[in-house]
Structure formats: structure tokens, C-alpha cells
Design brief:
The complex is a heterodimer. Chain A is mainly α. Chain A has helices at residues 3-53, 64-67, 71-75, 90-125, 127-140, 149-156, 160-184, 188-196, 201-223, 225-239, 244-253, 257-285. In chain B, 38% of the residues lie in helices and 23% in strands. Chain B is of the alpha/beta class. Chain B is built from 8 helices and 10 strands. Classes of the chains: A mainly alpha, B alpha/beta.
Chain lengths: 297, 266
């Protein structure tokens, strides 16, 4: 081998290991996807079988091949445009419905996250706030968001606001308590390093406390993501006038079992994608954390 | 800019934890200590003797129950960047790169990023850490992390370096290496150093003066001037003589501290 070739081999070595790592990840992803397909196929197959044999009620438990067969006829139930206007294309109707629900969840989550961060910080920093607010908060925390449903309608009537409010309530109390415990758990050494370097209170908060508590908070938020996703459907079912929850309620009222399962499929898929998106966000934001705590390493 | 020299003065400093409660504990009892500008003073004592408490009070992280502490003639009322502290545990922020960690204090002062990076590069090089600027603290060994922490403190150009058993968590070889680095940093910066340890070897290797603590409550048992040439030769007779003297001074205190811990655990 010539000298130049030797050098190029030596230089190529790290790249080769990166390629190997990529291949390893590729294989791992392929295996995971295969299990995924197998699991869903098994579930759908059993359902189809039970239905074909006649063990399942023919009308009430329509299997996937029936409720997924005709996308456009299902989609017309998703169109909430006023009668007389032209109907939206099936795909547009379905995606705007999903988007409406998704935006309500995201709005509620963001507001709840921001508000709980502020409340939790105030409680952790000021004794007066702690004394005055925390007891009430711990009494309100165990109340299910569902119990708040009438309140949200009294307060906000019909529309987006009550649904967003329900999601907000669903995360606000839990996240506030999580913020307090996270702030109390911030390492003294981390704080003292900043103090001995002359950090102001504000600098300590922004540059030490926030990055310290962020991993725990995002993990708590992610655990509450499914809860928020369920709550928004309930709010929509009761009275928003649009969204996936409204479609489910419509299907129930019209005894349309096929539509029920079609909507449930969309709800499941969207919820799954929402969780996956959140995972990605966590990974980007928490690049220094190991993957086991939601980070990107 | 004041004419900071790095002189420390403690008079009648006392610390009582949980004063007025049943668990009241006298940690530091009426001690006087002067550190001259540029002097390297080691506080040596058994664990729990109050030496770290005294250090925190000099740092301004704790306030004395009684007595005064002055840095350059000014009473200490809180922490300040003229007295930088280096902690026992790894204290680098895991969410910052090594360069950003070293430049952390400068960032608090509003120094621009490029300048911070330049300072970090230079300081890390003097600490024998080239090419780690963009690494993650978790990618460094314990000894490298502690050197980066020292670089972070030195970036503030402190007149006083306060070190709380900074090498306690490291293995013996790494420890010896880092002791050389800290002696060198002191030499180059001219900062005074107040250094807490329970290792006699560390004290003899580093100190101009060694303050030997009694077991709790912390008082000064002896103050020993070290007149050995630098760099210290651990095989010299004078080194051994001093070492043995410190062993004798500490032996009773270690026994007492040990007995008290046993009693407290029962």
C-alpha cells in the first residue's frame, strides 16, 4: 500500500465508524418498524376474524376494512362549513378538523406551562406567596379537569376558549407542583457557583435555575400530554362546534359505528404523533441530558 | 478599580448552626485568621471540624453568627467575584460547553462571546486542557473537569481563591498533578489561596502556612509555617519531619471526631 493510501485509510476510519453506527441505527429502526407492523396487523387481523366468524355484532363493531374503506364518505362528516357553501375536499376537511383539535391542545399546554412556571417560581421564591397560594393549589390539584367542564362553559361559553381552558386546567396544577419541587431540588453547588461569581437574582434564575429544572418539567409535561389530549376531546364533544371530539359525538348521536372507529383511529394516530413530536422537541432542547431522562444524548 | 490585594482578616469569627434550637451546634468558635496577599493558607482538620464552614463564611455564602471577616479591608457581607470558590463536587454546568462554562462569570459581566472564548482557550491551555472547548463536561474525566472549574474561577481574575477540598474526589495520581497546576496558577496570578483539606500530604505539598483545626467545635489547634522550597520534594527529610509533626497534631483530633461521629450515629 502506498503512503498516501495509508493516510487516507487512517483519515477514513472515523467516518467508517460513523457509517457503521448509522447502519446499526438503520437496522434497529427497521426491526422496530417490523414489530410495529406485526403488532397492528395482529390486532386488526383478530378483529377482522372475530367479525368474519360472526362473534362480533356486525353493525356495531365494524372492522378496519369497513371503516377505513371509504375515506371521502367518512370525511364529509368532518366538514363543518355552513350549509349552502361548497363542501371542502375530503382531505382538507379531515386535516382542518385534526388541526383545530391539535391547536387547542397546544394552546392549552403552552399557556398551562407558562403559567405554572410563573406560579411555581413565585411560590418557591416568596414565602408570602407560598403561604397564601400553595394550600389552595394543593386542594384544587386533585379535581379532575372533567369536573371543571361546567365551569369552563359558564366562563367561556361555546367555542375554542372552553376547550383550551380545560387543557390548561389539566396541566396547570400538576405542573405548578412539579415546578416547585424542581426548583427546590436545584443543586446548591450550581447556585453557589453563580453567586460567588456575582450573579444577580435574575441571572441566577435564567442561567442556572431554568436549565436545571427544564428536564424534569418537560418530562412531567410529556406525561400529561395524553391527559390533555383526552380532555380536549371531551370539551369538544360537549360544545365547541368543531374538532375530533365533536365528530365522535356526532357519530354517537347518529349511531354511526363506522365513523366512531374512523375518528378513533385518527385520534390514536394524532396522539401518537403528538407524543413523538414532543420527544423530538425534548431531544433538541435538552441536548445535554441522557436519553433516559428525555434528552438528546 | 480598587487596589485589591487579596488580604483576608478574620476576627472572633463564630458560627452556630440552628441557633436557639434544640439541635444548636457550635461549628466555628471564635477564630482569628489573617491571610497575607498572595499567601497560600491550608486549613487542615478532621471531617466536620468547621473548616469548610469558615471557608463559606469567607466566600460570603454564609454569614458569621459573631465576629467580622474583611477582604481587602472591606467587611464581607455576601459573595463577590473577588473571592472565587472552587467546590469539591463537579460544579460545571452540564448544559454548557466547556468553553461556555469557563466563560460563565464573564458572561454575567456582559463580556462578548468571542472574547469569552479567547479567555477560555488561554486559561484552559495553561491548565493543560487543549481542544476541549466544545466538549461537554460529561465527556471529561474528573481531573479535567476540576481543572476546567479552576479555569472558570481564574477567568474572574480573583484576588482570593477559595478551595473546598477540590481534589477529594480524585485518585492519588490525578491529585498530585492538579496540585502542581494549582501551585502554578497561584504563582502566575499572585492570588491568595485559602484551601480546605483533610489530607496532610496535600497540606504539606501546597501550603505557605497550615492552620490545624481541632475537632468540633472548630478552633485553631496550631498554625504551622512551612519553610520548604518549591517545588516541594516529598522525599526530603524536612518534608517528612513536617508531615510527622502534622500527624501528631491531628491524631487526637481525628480520634475525637471519629468518636463523636460514632456516638452521634448511635
Amino acid at each position: 500500500m502506498s503512503r498516501a493510501a495509508e493516510i487516507s485509510v487512517a483519515v477514513a476510519a472515523p467516518q467508517a465508524s460513523a457509517a457503521r453506527r448509522r447502519r446499526w441505527w438503520g437496522r434497529k429502526a427497521a426491526v422496530a418498524a417490523a414489530w410495529w407492523v406485526a403488532s397492528v396487523a395482529l390486532f386488526a387481523g383478530l378483529w377482522e376474524l372475530v367479525w368474519a366468524i360472526g362473534w362480533a355484532p356486525q353493525l356495531l363493531l365494524p372492522p378496519p376494512h369497513i371503516f377505513l374503506r371509504d375515506f371521502s364518505s367518512q370525511a364529509k362528516y368532518f366538514d363543518t362549513s355552513d350549509i349552502g357553501r361548497a363542501q371542502a375536499a375530503p382531505l382538507v376537511a379531515v386535516s382542518t378538523t385534526i388541526l383545530a383539535t391539535l391547536l387547542r391542545v397546544l394552546a392549552g399546554l403552552s399557556l398551562g406551562f407558562a403559567a405554572s412556571l410563573v406560579t411555581g417560581t413565585l411560590i418557591a421564591q416568596f414565602r408570602v406567596v407560598r403561604g397564601l397560594v400553595l394550600p389552595t393549589l394543593t386542594l384544587l390539584a386533585p379535581i379532575s379537569p372533567i369536573a371543571w367542564l361546567p365551569v369552563s362553559i359558564f366562563l367561556f361559553g361555546i367555542g375554542n376558549a372552553p376547550a383550551v381552558f380545560m387543557v390548561f386546567v389539566g396541566v396547570y396544577f400538576v405542573m405548578t407542583l412539579a415546578t416547585i419541587s424542581q426548583i427546590n431540588g436545584v443543586s446548591d453547588t450550581y447556585l453557589n457557583v453563580a453567586r460567588t461569581m456575582g450573579a444577580t437574582r435574575r441571572q441566577m434564575f435564567v442561567q442556572v435555575v431554568v436549565p436545571s429544572i427544564l428536564p424534569g418539567l418537560l418530562q412531567t409535561l410529556r406525561l400529561n400530554l395524553f391527559g390533555a389530549w383526552m380532555v380536549v376531546l371531551l370539551a369538544e364533544a360537549v360544545g365547541v362546534g368543531s374538532g375530533l371530539g365533536q365528530v365522535v359525538m356526532l357519530a354517537r348521536n347518529t349511531f354511526n359505528a363506522s365513523l366512531v372507529f374512523f375518528a378513533m383511529t385518527l385520534i390514536g394516530l394524532t396522539g401518537y404523533l403528538l407524543d413523538m413530536g414532543f420527544r423530538q422537541l425534548q431531544r433538541r432542547l435538552l441536548w445535554w441530558q441522557p436519553a433516559s431522562t428525555g434528552g438528546g444524548r | 478599580m480598587t487596589t485589591a490585594t487579596g488580604a483576608l482578616r478574620c476576627r472572633g469569627v463564630t458560627k452556630i448552626w440552628g441557633e436557639g434550637t434544640a439541635g444548636e451546634l457550635l461549628a466555628v468558635d471564635n477564630v482569628d485568621l489573617d491571610v497575607q496577599p498572595g499567601e497560600f493558607v491550608v486549613m487542615l482538620g478532621p471531617s466536620g471540624c468547621g473548616k469548610s464552614t469558615l471557608l463559606s463564611m469567607v466566600a460570603g455564602l454564609e454569614l458569621p453568627t459573631a465576629g467580622v471577616i474583611e477582604a481587602d479591608g472591606e467587611p464581607v457581607s455576601g459573595p463577590g467575584p473577588d473571592r472565587c470558590m472552587i467546590f469539591q463536587q463537579s460544579s460545571l454546568y452540564p448544559w454548557l460547553s466547556v468553553a461556555d462554562n469557563v466563560g460563565f462569570g464573564l458572561r454575567l459581566r456582559g463580556v462578548p462571546k468571542a472574547e469569552r472564548r479567547e479567555v477560555a482557550r488561554k486559561l484552559l491551555r495553561t491548565m493543560g486542557l487543549a481542544d476541549v472547548l466544545d466538549k461537554h463536561p460529561d465527556e471529561l474525566s474528573g481531573g479535567m473537569r476540576q481543572r476546567a472549574a479552576i479555569a472558570r474561577a481564574m477567568a474572574m481574575r480573583p484576588r482570593v481563591l477559595l478551595m473546598d477540598e477540590p481534589f477529594a474526589a480524585l485518585d492519588v495520581q490525578t491529585r498530585a498533578k492538579l496540585q502542581n497546576y494549582i501551585a502554578q496558577v497561584r504563582e502566575e496570578s499572585g492570588a491568595s489561596v485559602l484551601f480546605v483539606t483533610h489530607s496532610i500530604d496535600e497540606a504539606v505539598a501546597l501550603a505557605d502556612r497550615i492552620v490545624v483545626f481541632t475537632a468540633r467545635p472548630g478552633r485553631f489547634k496550631a498554625i504551622v509555617d512551612v519553610e520548604l522550597d518549591r517545588p516541594r520534594d516529598p522525599r526530603s527529610a524536612a518534608y517528612h519531619e513536617l508531615h510527622d509533626r502534622l500527624v501528631d497534631l491531628l491524631a487526637d483530633e481525628v480520634d475525637r471526631a471519629f468518636a463523636e461521629q460514632e456516638r452521634a450515629a448511635r
